[in-house]
């Protein structure tokens, strides 16, 4: 495996292994407050943990929601957010056998221990101990953090990963080693593979693993952020005949067209419900609809846009509201189905490496998802771009 030139030029495990590292991180001190880029202390990894030198990290809407404090479970400060990244293993804790210092890896928020009943079940990608958990803010080993301020105060973790930092410590169940098959060079893909930590895997996986979109099928995607566009890209790769994008931002269609979207519907411009419009142009409804907006009204439109008898709606949007599903039980007797999807149905450690190979071989196009590249110190600007709807993924580098 070839590692990007210069990627680990400042990484010398002989000098840092087993020691506390002082490095830069963007620390959240309260909901909506600008992140503070400052020096923090990062402890060595303990048993079955990995310390990673982050090369690139990007910002997802889940990070945005956490920063805004929309979910009470995320009210733990100070905290290091972030869950999309790529990096190099700096050191490993006792018992870690599937990776070593210098390996190229991506952290994942939905881990895979490989030993629990969930991991051994082929019907789920949930892990009993390391599955996605918005409540979790400390490490599994000892209930403590691996981050602290320079004066010794603890800094909490986020979504099993905490990637807005030059170094992070992650449970090994939440770290995936990536390599290029054969004699290929990994260098051209280092930054792009950052997107596999969440957005692209979540969207493409929903199309492939959860819906199993088939050739010549029809698809509707509600919400054209990075996840929604990843769904469209996954549907395009599977040969869908019609991919309808639904969003109130008309600028999204420009980017969406490159990712396979064939039709665009802006609800603001429609005189009738969106689901009626979709039924009209798809002879009764789509085979697959995907709700990526985290909005209950949008979810109902997505459900009703699916064809009676066989239509499937896949829920990807995060819904922090306590409101329940806007579906009457009797409506399920029409044959429409609805299912949720976490991390695109991928079992991270066993299946993500294969997906990475497909991306590196061009089956899935990653380049169009990266709209901005910024130095890490400009992380607040990257958040502003996301809030303004001007970015899909802003890639931050150290």
Automatic annotation (TrEMBL):
The keyword Zinc applies. Its cofactor is Zn(2+). Pfam families: ADH_N (PF08240), ADH_zinc_N (PF00107). Keywords: Metal-binding, NAD, Oxidoreductase, Zinc. Its EC number is 1.1.1.1. Residues 226-345 form the Alcohol dehydrogenase-like C-terminal domain. GO terms for molecular function: alcohol dehydrogenase (NAD+) activity; S-(hydroxymethyl)glutathione dehydrogenase [NAD(P)+] activity; zinc ion binding. It comes from the Eukaryota. It is an enzyme of class 1 (oxidoreductase). Residues 47-178 form the Alcohol dehydrogenase-like N-terminal domain. GO terms for cellular component: cytosol. Belongs to the zinc-containing alcohol dehydrogenase family. Class-III subfamily. Homodimer. This is alcohol dehydrogenase.
């Amino acid at each position: 495996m070839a590692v990007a030139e210069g990627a680990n030029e400042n990484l010398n495990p002989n000098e840092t292994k087993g020691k506390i590292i002082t490095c830069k991180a963007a620390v959240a001190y309260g909901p909506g407050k600008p992140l503070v880029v400052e020096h923090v202390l990062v402890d060595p990894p303990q048993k079955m943990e990995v310390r990673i030198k982050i090369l690139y990290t990007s910002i997802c809407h889940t990070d945005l929601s956490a920063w805004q404090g929309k979910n009470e479970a995320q009210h733990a400060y100070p905290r290091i957010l972030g869950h999309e990244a790529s990096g190099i293993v700096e050191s490993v804790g006792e018992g870690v056998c599937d990776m070593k210092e210098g390996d190229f890896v991506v952290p994942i928020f939905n881990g895979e221990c490989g030993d629990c009943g969930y991991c051994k079940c082929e019907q789920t990608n949930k892990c009993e101990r390391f599955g996605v958990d918005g409540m979790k803010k400390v490490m599994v080993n000892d209930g403590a953090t691996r981050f602290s301020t320079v004066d010794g105060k603890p800094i909490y973790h986020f979504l099993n990963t905490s990637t807005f930092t030059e170094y992070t410590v992650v449970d090994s169940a939440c770290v995936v080693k990536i390599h290029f098959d054969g004699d290929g060079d990994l260098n051209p893909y280092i930054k792009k593979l950052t997107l596999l930590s969440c957005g692209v895997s979540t969207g493409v996986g929903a199309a492939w693993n959860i819906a199993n979109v088939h050739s010549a099928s029809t698809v509707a995607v509600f919400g054209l952020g990075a996840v929604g566009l990843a769904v469209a890209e996954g549907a395009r790769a599977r040969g869908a005949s019609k991919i309808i994008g639904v969003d109130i931002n008309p600028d999204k269609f420009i980017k969406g067209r490159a990712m396979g979207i064939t039709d665009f519907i802006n609800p603001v411009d429609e005189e009738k419900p969106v689901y009626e419009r979709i039924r009209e142009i798809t002879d009764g409804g789509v085979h697959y609809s995907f709700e990526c907006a985290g909005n209950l009204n949008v979810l109902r439109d997505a459900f009703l846009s699916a064809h009676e008898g066989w239509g499937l709606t896949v829920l990807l949007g995060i819904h922090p509201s306590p409101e329940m599903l806007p579906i009457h039980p009797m409506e399920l007797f029409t044959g429409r189905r609805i299912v949720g999807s976490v991390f695109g149905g991928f079992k991270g450690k066993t299946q993500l490496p294969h997906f990475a190979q497909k991306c590196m071989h061009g089956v899935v196009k990653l380049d169009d998802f990266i709209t901005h590249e910024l130095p890490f110190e400009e992380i607040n600007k990257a958040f502003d771009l996301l809030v303004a709807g001007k970015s899909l993924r802003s890639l931050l580098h150290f």
